[in-house]
Amino acid sequence: APCFAAIGAIRREMNNWRWTTFAIVYQTVLAYAVSLIVYQLGMLFTGAGSVLGSVVAFVLLAVLLWLLFRPASKPNPARVEAS
After folding, report:
1. Among 3, 32, 55, 64, which is least packed, fewest CB within 10 Å?
2. pTM, whole model, 2 decimals?
3. Contact 53, 37 (CB under 8 A)
């Protein structure tokens, strides 16, 4: 989770506790997922890893890479005209 100053800034910018809570939970889950990937793949390369942990790490890595490199969606013409 971010520090209290960052939480205060998020709260002030979003002006809603629901979005602030979502942002904090999202950042915490993302950090946990990345650390799990690094740990499990490190254990796999040293020979001390488990099969289940490695599978979970590879699935999480695939999901994160897909989210990072997926093609951008095309803008909806109806929404562009309404703006």
Report:
1. 3
2. 0.73
3. no
